[in-house]
């Protein structure tokens, strides 16, 4: 089967492209390269362009004969989306709509969509299951919910089958350090801890030490990027095999605190990473972690990596690629 991967030169996209090819899929990547990197996808065919470009998409479907889409292309910084909501709705929602319309016109019926735990907002109960009410707290999270709703109606009206994958906190790198996250554009905890360990920034700030958690710092569910990639391939196979749409939470189900992340990074790197304890960050929930039973049951998915491997692989990547892909 030939698969179009939008945003395939980005962080999770590029890991998924590699795994798809290892598992025998033919892949073509569509990426604007605004944030993605050519070097992240090796010799995989790349079309440089935008998912909002309907004419380009129609041409790709006609010429490439792709039968399914994995759709990563989107902006992903929740904080930034509070300052630039229009930019997020335009890229994430309008881009996805153009893609869905082109798929429908070309009769491409299967799509795996990058959603996010950001659709839940602050959870009312833990762990968070897929049926937890959706209360996004940023335009970013809202844009993911809006696309999920479009997918729902394209399923009902046009027979489109989708898997919407709600990631928790993606982290880590390919285990042999041959690919990873380009940290120049990330504000997430683990890459920032790596930067502090390498002395690229003077210290990592801990946002909040007075949360009602065992060590006072906030709790998240960190999931290895390769486990996410594996879930994409399994989700694609599921919707094709079952001819049915589904939504899945992708997390380990295990929460880790900010302090635990820093302690693990100190152990793994051997560096006494400098830390500054500061006030809570606005809008941060105290704790969120996944109920991942649905993905385990229906996809046969089982996260292979825990916090230690996530941090070890991130450290191996960042310490050997201090300038990312440098392209
Ligand atoms: C993790 C924890 C911070 C930076 C984001 C998106 C969300 C989803 C997952 C994609 C929090 C703390 C962080 C720092 C810190 N993304 N922290 N110092 O906020 O859980 O979620 O990624 O779909 O939509 O918002 O991720 O990595 O920013 O923070 O103490 O310098 O680390 O307060 O508790 P977050 P994060």
In brief:
40% of the residues lie in helices and 17% in strands.
Secondary structure elements and their pairing?
Layout: E1 2-6, H1 11-22, E2 26-31, E3 46-48, H2 54-64, E4 68-71, H3 78-83, H4 85-106, E5 110-116, H5 139-158, E6 161-167, E7 169-171, H6 189-197, E8 204-207, E9 219-220, E10 222-224, H7 225-242, E11 246-250, E12 256-257, H8 258-269, E13 275-278, H9 293-299, H10 307-320
Parallel strand pairs: 1-2, 1-4, 2-3, 4-5, 5-6, 6-11, 7-10, 8-13
Antiparallel strand pairs: 9-12
Helix pairs in contact: 1-7, 2-4, 4-5, 6-8, 6-10, 8-10
The structure holds UDP-4-deoxy-4-formamido-beta-L-arabinopyranose.
What ligands does this structure carry? UDP-4-deoxy-4-formamido-beta-L-arabinopyranose
CATH superfamily of the largest domain: NAD(P)-binding Rossmann-like Domain
CATH topology of the largest domain: Rossmann fold
Q: How many angstroms does the end-to-end distance come to? A: 31 Å
Overview of this protein structure:
- With 327 residues, the protein is of the alpha/beta class.
- It folds into two domains: 2-171 and 222-250, 3-Layer(aba) Sandwich (Rossmann fold), CATH 3.40.50.720; 183-221 and 253-288 and 305-326, UDP-galactose 4-epimerase, domain 1.
- It has ten helices and 13 strands.
- A seven-stranded parallel sheet has the order 3-2-1-4-5-6-11, sandwiched between helices.
- Helix 5 links the parallel strand 5 and strand 6.
- Helix 8 crosses helix 10 (307-320).
- The longest helix has 22 residues, at 85-106.
- It is globular and about 55 Å long.
- Residues 76, 78, 116-118, 167, 169, 187-189, 192, 204-207, 218, 220, 258, 281, 284 line the site of UDP-4-deoxy-4-formamido-beta-L-arabinopyranose.
